[in-house]
């Protein structure tokens, strides 16, 4: 049953990606503006403009352009960036790992902080500290990620300059990486100085992205924990003399984590989308920052490649979340 469900999801994923490709292709062609106009010099002749338009395949009809582009994508050819004059797939391969490392670091931080707040709020139920915790969580939830980013820049980058404001790594560090996953590689190869420098550059973006997500996780997990704490199996464990902490962690948490995982997966896809603005604020070299430049420059091949990558990420994440929820829920696993 699980294999059949995965196969159905893969078929739906292919159909979804085709729909995304079609929509973004049409929308980019109907909005005002000519990408070729940004590439030509003021004295270019009509023949030179026509040659450049033919080079990028913009002289054919829309159905022909879409068919040619779709066939090229199926063989791994995403085209050439108009503004950067480089292969789109190569650019995505360079920038995507930076965004993935940032997003997963923010997810780990959000899960740790949100889980701790939920457990603490459950243990301090009906005490003086519960409204304090709920107020703190409400503030984290109300402030969007880009506002957190700007506030962190002012506090930790200007007033108390303890963290770097931009980039992924100090330019003075001469390091030869074998992979684009700098954080993981520096940790595996025991380059702790480089690892610490990477973490310092990621701290503020991770906080900006992770705080709102942590608030959502804390709210949902706390409600699930409170519901689980009044179940019969928890009351029986309480009669056996278990402490409140053990009741929450050993009895209630494993049954409350299912809906939290489902919501976290959905919110994680929005978190990846939120990296666009946060990466721009911190000049972080990921695909979010590159997406803004691509839109400004009307770089059609690069925008199309970026949208497809974002769409594929959303589909893969949702599939993994469904598998995790099934793993934590025996009824779904055997249903």
TrEMBL record:
Domain ABC transmembrane type-1 span(s) in chain numbering: 96-325
Family annotation (InterPro entries): BPD_transp_1_N, MetI-like, MetI-like_sf
Spans traversing the lipid bilayer: 102-124, 136-163, 198-221, 256-282, 302-328
Biological processes, Gene Ontology terms: transmembrane transport
Coiled coil: none
Entry keywords, A to Z: Cell membrane, Membrane, Transmembrane, Transmembrane helix, Transport
Keyword Transmembrane helix: yes
Membrane topology: Multi-pass membrane protein
Localization per record: Cell membrane
Domain of life: Bacteria
Family: Belongs to the binding-protein-dependent transport system permease family.
Protein name in UniProt: ABC transporter permease
Source organism (scientific name): Rhizobium setariae
